[in-house]
Design goal:
single chain, 96 residues, alpha+beta, Jelly Rolls, 1 helix
């Protein structure tokens, strides 16, 4: 079940990140390119999302994990069934 997966992934995320939270978007939602001054650790809980980086695209499905170093420019497009993710700030605060 989605709730069980989210609970397990949130427990894991809290061991490696701070400021952990959940968010969701509907099908086809687009995030414009942006960056964060912190390391972003993210797990996909339900649905799908594709993150576009300057050198590649990362496709996430339930259970997948992604880590973006500070300052990494990225955008994203939510898949056809929407998405729920959890994310937090990792310990790496230096831009690369």
């Amino acid at each position: 079940m989605v709730a069980d997966l989210e609970t397990g992934l949130m427990r894991r995320l809290r061991r490696e990140a701070t400021g952990c939270h959940s968010w969701s978007n509907g099908p086809g939602y687009v995030y414009a390119e942006h960056s964060h001054p912190y390391e972003k650790i993210l797990y996909c809980v339900a649905g799908s999302i594709s993150f576009t980086l300057p050198d590649r695209t990362i496709h996430l499905r339930p259970g997948d994990r992604m880590v973006l170093p500070p300052g990494t420019v990225h955008g994203a497009v939510v898949g056809p069934e929407g998405v729920t993710c959890i994310e937090g700030r990792g310990g790496n605060m230096q831009a690369r």
